[in-house]
Amino acid sequence: MSASLPRLWKHIQRSAQMEPSYMSVARLMRETRSDAKSVLHTARWLHEQLPIRFAQRIEEFLQLPHVVICNPHINSTLNRYLETYEVITDFPDILTSRDEMAFAKLVNEQLVLHDSCTTFLAEGYREVRQCYPQIQLDAFLNDLFTVRIACRILMENYIAMREPVDRCIGVVRQGMRPLSLVQSMATRLTDLASSHYGNAPELEFRGNPDCVLDYIPRHVGYMVRELLKNAIRATIERHQQNLFNLPPVVVELQQGDIHVIIKISDHGGGMPKRVQHEAWQYGWTTAGVDSPQQIAGYGFGLPLSRLHAQYFGGDLFMQALPGHGTDMYLLLTHLKQGSSATEMEDPTTVVYQKRRSMPPASPVCDR
Predict the structure, then answer these.
(1) Cβ neighbours of residue 257 under 8 Å, at least 6 residues apart?
(2) Which family, according to the similarity comment (predicted)?
(3) Which residue of 35, 247, 336, 362 is 20 to 30 Å from 285, comparing CA positions?
(4) How far, in Å, CA of 228 to CA of 251, rounded?
């Protein structure tokens, strides 16, 4: 546990009691302008709002069982949240363009600091459940990752608006072609699988290759990578006795008025209906112990991909045929400026409403 927690605790409690100012995608896009006045306004807003969000997550960490917080990986994640809270609250008022430049540097540093938090949490959760299989943290993780998605969008959008790029509104890329991203991701993953297993299935692309989408490319990349990883690995492990005659993984793209649909189909054997609901639980995986980590992951890929899709009103669902294979349907909502889809409520409002009914947290050192 960070030595700074006792010193910061009263400040954290005070920040955590405040209600965040929520940000719909529509508002975010309207306020994404690169002039100096807008950038300064956004920096001041983040300086005020980020400590509230991080303080509330710190309180949620401190509600976890002691054996969970004591896990080195989970404790390291908590310490990063404490560090971010401390450095942002210690940052002086942002009055000038020089102050804003220094704050942007700080925000960039904190984004990098938190890059590995998902992996740390996944490793820590796996270790905890190996010793205490009865511990289930799905509700905590869902709330934590919902707020993490929101914070990273706000922070990355602030950095992006300082250096505008053609056909982008902050982090939202206008008219991106999902096919190009899927093809690039598929090449990297099949090369990785071939180097470990000796071969990899080919990918077949069907449907509408000219689909376009206004979306955050990093989010699409994450979701597609997780789904392709599962499909490629399941196909190889299902057909190990016939490794050089693997059935293909099929990717189909279709464009609708509200969504772009990406369907990924494999012949990896599917899974029994009785365990299909478990695939959406954090930490659940069918990967064998010998599967490479870059392909297998920690069992966070499916629930996190669905959370990313649902964040903007999309979805991810599965149709598994036991003994045959699995179809995954990824629905991505068009984030077109001015559309009704961008006006939907910030998902973190639900997380805050849940908090209001919970008892206040106390630091572990006081227990």
Answers:
(1) 334
(2) Belongs to the PDK/BCKDK protein kinase family.
(3) 247
(4) 9
**Which two structure tokens, joined as six digits, stand for 173?**
């890329």
Distance CA 161, CA 190 (A): 35
Q: Is 53 helix (H, G, I), strand (E, B) or coil?
A: helix
Cα separation, 332 vs 259, whole angstroms: 5
pLDDT given at position 341: 79
Q: What is d(CA 125, CA 115) in angstroms, rounded to the nearest whole number?
A: 17
Structure tokens that stand for 24 in this block:
């719909």
Q: What is the pLDDT of residue 274?
A: 84
Report H helices in the chain.
5-16, 25-30, 36-61, 66-69, 72-90, 97-113, 117-131, 138-162, 178-197, 217-238, 273-276, 293-296, 301-311, 348-356
Mention the CATH class of domain 172-340. alpha beta
137-185 pLDDT tens trace? 999 999 999 999 999 999 999 999 999 999 999 999 999 999 999 999 9
Single out the residue of 367, 353, 366, 363 nearest to residue 22, CA to CA.
353
Over 80: is that where the pLDDT of 366 sits?
no
List Cβ<8 Å contacts ≥24 apart for 62-69.
Answer: 62/361, 62/362, 62/363, 62/364, 63/140, 63/358, 63/361, 64/137, 64/140, 65/132, 65/135, 66/364, 66/367, 67/128, 67/131, 67/132, 67/135, 68/124, 68/128, 68/135, 68/137, 69/1, 69/364
Within 10 Å of residue 39's Cβ, how many Cβ atoms? Answer: 19
203-207 and 249-255 as β-strands: parallel, antiparallel, unpaired?
A: parallel
Q: Which two tokens stand for residue 98?
A: 């020089």
- Comparing CA positions, the residue from 187, 178, 256 lying closest to residue 217 is 178
Instruction: List the domain boundaries for the chain.
Output: 7-166, 172-340
Q: Does the structure show a pLDDT above 90 at 264?
A: yes
Question: Hey, what CATH class is 7-166 in?
Answer: mainly alpha
d(CA 144, CA 271): 29
CA terminus-to-terminus distance, the chain: 13
